Amino acid sequence: MTGDLIYLDHNATTPVAPEVLDAMLPYLRDQYGNPSSDHPLGRRAAAAVAQARGQVADLIGADAGDIVFTSGGTESNNLAIRGTAATADPGRRCIVTTVVEHPATIAPLAHLQTQGWAITRLPVTPAGSIDTTAGAAELGPTVALVTMMLAQNETGVILPVADVAAAAHRVGAVVHVDAAQAIGKIDVNVSNLDVDLLSIAGHKCYAPKGVGALYRRPGTALQPLLLGGGQENGIRPGTENVAGIVGLGAACDLVRAHIATETVRLAGLRDNLWQQLRAAIPGMVCHTPPVSLPNTLMVSFSGVLGRTVLAHAPGLVASTGSACHSGHDTPSATLIAMGATLDVALGAVRLSLGRGTTQTDIDTATWILMRAHGLAATP
Question: In the chain, at which end, N or C, are there fewer CB atoms within 10 A of the end residue's CB?
Answer without folding.
Answer: C
